[in-house]
Amino acid sequence: MINRWLFTKIDNSALLVFRVIFGFLIAAEAIGAIFTGWIEKTLIEPQFTFTFIGFEFLQPLPGNGMYWYYAFMGILGLLVMVGYKYRWSMTGYTVLWAGVYYMQKTSYNNHYYLLLLLCIFMILLPAHRYFSIDARQHPKIEQISMPRWCSLVIIVQLWIVYTYASIAKLYPDWLDATVAKNLMASKADYPIIGAWLQYHWTHVTIAYTGIFFDLLIIPLLLYKRTRFYAFFISIFFHLFNSIVFQIGIFPYLSLAFSVFFFNTTTIHTIFLKKKTYYANAEVSIPSYKKWLLGFLIIWFSIQVALPVRHWLIPGDVLWTEEGHKLSWRMMLRSRGGYTNFYIVDQQDPDKKRIKVDKSQYLSAKQLRTIATKPDAMWQFAQHLKKEYTAQGKNISVYVSSKVSINRKPAKTFIDPKVDLANVTWNYFTTNPWIVKYDE
Predict the structure, then answer these.
(1) Which of 86, 203, 351, 389 could cysteine-pair with 128, CB 3.0–4.6 Å?
(2) What is the value of pTM for the model shown?
(3) What is the residue extent of each domain of the chain?
(4) What angle (nearest 5°) sits at the alpha carbon of residue 270, between those of residues 266 and 274?
C-alpha cells in the first residue's frame, strides 16, 4: 500500500507549474526586500543583529553587501523559475535564505520558516524535468511524470501548518475576538475598508473564519465535491490577508499550492496543454526508497513534535514566548511593554546602577523587539557584557521589564534580581528568570 501511495507515477504538470510560480515569488521576495527598505531597516541600520541564539557567527555583510546578497538571491529565484541549473540554483537560494533567516529575528515571521522548509523540499523534487531550460539543453532528463510522493509531501506539510495554526487559536482572547479587535485597530485609516474593520461583527467573523479556514481548508481541497468552492474561499481569504496585513508573497504562495490539489488533468489542460499527458499510473519502486522513507519519517515527526513542545515547558507560551517559534502560532497575540537595562560595575564599591541608553545601540525596530522578547533581552545583556569586558570591566546587567499581552494590564516579566549578563540560555526548557504567573 505504501508503494502504491508514494511511488505511483502521476503527471508532473502541477509540480512544473508550481516551480515557475515559486521561482517568480522567491525572486520577488528577495528583490522586494531591496526596494521596500526592509534590508536597510533590518540588516544595515542596526549596529548588531539579534540572530537565532547559537547562530551569532551569521552577521550581515558590511557596507551595502546585503543588497548584493539579496540581488543574487533574486537572480537565483529567476533561474529556478526558468529551470536553469535548477538543483544548483535552488540549493543556492536555500542556503542564502537560511543564512538570512537565522541571521536576524527582529522581523521573525512564521512564513519565513515555511519558505525555508519549502526550499528544502524543492531541492529534492524533480521540478526541472520538463518545461525548463535544463530539459531543453539536456533532453535525456525530460520526464512527463513524477512519483506521487512529490505532491504528497507538500500536502502533508501544509496540513500540519494549517492544523496547528487552527488549534493555536483556541484560547479565550481569540475566541472572544479580542485579538482580532486589536489587530484591526491599526487598520482604521485604510481606504474604503478601514471603518468596516472596526465593527465587532467583523472581529468575530475574522476570529472564527480563521479557526475554521485553517482547520478545514486542506480536507476541503482534497475532497472533489468541495474543492472548487474551497479554492474560491481561499482566493478571498488570502487576498484579504494580503490587503489588510501586507505580508508579502505568502498569500500568493498559499494560492499556488492549489495546483497540487486539483486533478492532474485539470492542471495539464489549463497550463501545459501542449505537453504529453501521463496517465499510465505505473508503480515504480526507486532505489532510494529506504532513504526517502527514513527522511520523511524523521522530517514529519519533527514537524509534528515542534509545535507541541511548549506543553513540556513551564509557563504559558503566550506569556513566556518559550516554544513560540517554529510552531505556526501566527498573529495570535499582541505584546506591548517596556524594558530598561541597568549596568553595575562589580569593581565599583558603591555598586551603582547605571541605566543603559538603548537607543545608542538599537534601531527603532529592535527597540520594539527588546521591549517584550526574553531571548532578545538576554542577547542584549550578553552584548553589553562583551562590550564592557573589552574595556577591562566586569559588569552585571539587570532588567526592569513590564509586559502586556493583548492590551491587558502590564505585569513584571523579568526577575529584576537576576544578572542576565551572567546566566546561560536554556534551549530546551524554561529560563527561570522569566516570571511565571498562575492563570
Answers:
(1) 86
(2) 0.95
(3) 2-312, 334-422
(4) 105
